[in-house]
Amino acid sequence: MERPHDLGGEPAGPVDRREHEVEDWERLTDAITIALDRKGVKTTDEHRRAIESLPDYRELSYYERWAAATENLLVEKGLLSRKEIDARAEELSRAWGER
């Protein structure tokens, strides 16, 4: 089965090399991912597999992939439910004034 990282030779267009400001949610995603690794909750290989399994891989940014894959792993391992994750995301959105 071909995965997103098996794109060698396929036309993909130019690579966007523009720099951008790192947003708070991206820093948070990075920190959570590292913390889960250090706590032994997940491995880099599990995370990579989860990223490559995302159905919308090509539409997501780098850290959107990390966040979606981490969420999927937490649900897959039975540590959190989608409902719990969505409730907390809604709570954070309200606290940060995004809604």
From TrEMBL:
<feature type="region of interest" description="Disordered">
    <location>
        <begin position="1"/>
        <end position="22"/>
    </location>
</feature>
<dbReference type="InterPro" id="IPR042262">
    <property type="entry name" value="CN_hydtase_beta_C"/>
</dbReference>
<feature type="domain" description="Nitrile hydratase beta subunit-like N-terminal">
    <location>
        <begin position="1"/>
        <end position="92"/>
    </location>
</feature>
<protein>
    <submittedName>
        <fullName>Putative ScnB-like protein</fullName>
    </submittedName>
</protein>
<dbReference type="InterPro" id="IPR049054">
    <property type="entry name" value="CN_hydtase_beta-like_N"/>
</dbReference>
<dbReference type="InterPro" id="IPR008990">
    <property type="entry name" value="Elect_transpt_acc-like_dom_sf"/>
</dbReference>
<dbReference type="Pfam" id="PF21006">
    <property type="entry name" value="NHase_beta_N"/>
</dbReference>
